Amino acid sequence: MKIRSLIVAAFVLLALIGTLHWSEHRKPSEETAQTSADTPPTILKLDGAAITKLELKKKDAEPIILTKNSSAAWQIVQPKPLSADQAAVSGVISTLSSLNSERLVDDKASDVKQYGLAQPAFEVDITEKDNKTERILVGDETPAGNAVYAMLAGNPRIFTMASYHKTSIDKSLNDLRDKRLLTVTAEKVSRLELISKNRDIEFGRNEDEWQILKPKPLRADGTQVSELLGKLADARMDLSGSNKDLEDAASAFARATPVATARVTDQSGTQELQVRKSQVRKSKDTYYAKSSVVEGAYKIDSSLGQAVDKGLDDFRNKKLFDFGFNEPTKIEVHSGTQAYFLSKSGPDWWSNGKKMEAGSVQDFISKLRDLTADKFVESGFANPAIDITVTSDEGKRVEKVFIAKSGNSYIARRENEPSLYQLDSSSVDALEKSADEIKPAAAPGK
User: Fold this and answer.
1) 309-323 residues labelled b (16+ CB within 10 A) or e (exposed)
2) How far apart are CA 178 and CA 168, in angstroms?
3) Which of 10, 36, 146, 288 is the most buried (most CB within 10 A)?
């Protein structure tokens, strides 16, 4: 009796172990199946880089056709040839490349009319480089209003697609066109010219350094030139208004007062932007621009109008020294009967064989770096009382500046340059005081 009970118990235990083993191995596959059933199916999966043509069609509107050119850049070819906004088109491509649904509504729809797909409000035809094509049809909104019905042409399945996906691909011509008034990249511009009734200023770039070429060679304030170029490169057409608004802008441009014409040159050629202003009410100017790149005239931001409405001195470099934030390696100063000789060896500054206190030398270098003219003058320089020579850039750059007293201020001149810089007396006084305060480093252990 006991043996029989033990045998029965052993069979029961083996059955339980087998059931547990089966359930543990069966559970992941069941969970996977459940997860798969709950995951919304993908409507379309494509290689975005392989797409070569897009055709966007709306009811009662001309289709918009975009193609890739030989440089792999997108262009609008219909309803009229236009440059395309590459970022905007890339956004459409990104959405189409991995277009997900919210749910599958009907696996084999026999009547698509009830979803608004018999005559869809919007559709996109996609062509890939192997001439394979896909067509997405977008129909009515769902009753909840946060999704739309969609399907692929030739496929009977009906999906719901999030409304934001439709917004990402349902673009107008103005959404997709390049709205830049000048199609240049600021970093690649080599020449920039500002022309107006009273001036002609030309800038040239040598690597990363700007120089004034006209009306005569002068040092340029690189920050000011770069800011102007940046505003020109960022100038955009305002296409948010109606056709009448565009007509009004063209009419206003024709009546407005010319401010300046900007010409920019890069490796592809020269482009031009004419800027004019109209005073619609006292103390408020409205600016308009017309480009050689696109048709029409457009209202522009006042900051661009003000940027081109500047004189030569606004773009001149008013700093006395060009070493900027490069650390000098040698400084020589003569001021009256005082003379200072500083040289750098490794991390330390030395003068006449003595190691100098680093903080006092750095304060003096900061004062040199900050020497800036209030304005440029034509005369007043005579009998310089101070001359300063700064060597930097591993000895490749040597700058010498002469400073003379002139009334209540100072006039400075850089060696081998005709320009005269007027300095506020406080900056020169601070420089001399800082030079006097340069001191030897404390002896070790003190």
Assistant:
1) bbebeebbbbbbbbb
2) 17
3) 288
User: Rounded to the nearest 5 degrees, what angle is found at the Cα of 325, between the Cα atoms of 323 and 326?
Assistant: 60
Task: Please choose, from the candidates 229, 269, 236, 253, the residue with its C-alpha nearest in 3D space to the C-alpha of residue 87.
Answer: 236
Judge whether 105 and 156 are in contact, CB under 8 Å: no
The answer, as to whether pTM is greater than 0.90, is no
Decide if 205 contacts 193 (C-beta within 8 A).
Answer: no
Centroid of chain to Cα 73: 19
Cβ pair 274, 290 in contact under 8 A: yes
pLDDT tens digits along 351-400: 999 999 999 999 999 999 999 999 999 999 999 999 999 999 999 999 99
**Sheet of 51-58, strand order:** 82-83, 74-78, 64-68, 51-58, 122-128, 133-141, 147-152, 158-162, 103-106
Cβ contacts of 279 within 8 Å, gap of 6 or more: 285, 286
Q: Find the helix or strand (DSSP H, E) in which 18 lies.
A: helix 2-38
Half-sphere exposure of 202 (CA within 13 A, CB side): 9
Structure-token match 């020449």, residue found: 191
* CA–CA dist 59, 125 (Å, integer): 14
Nearest-angstrom CA–CA distance, 91 and 253: 34
CA distance 176 to 92: 9
List pLDDT tens digits, range 99-139.
999 999 999 988 999 999 999 999 999 999 989 999 999 99
* CA dist., res. 386 & res. 435, Å (int): 12
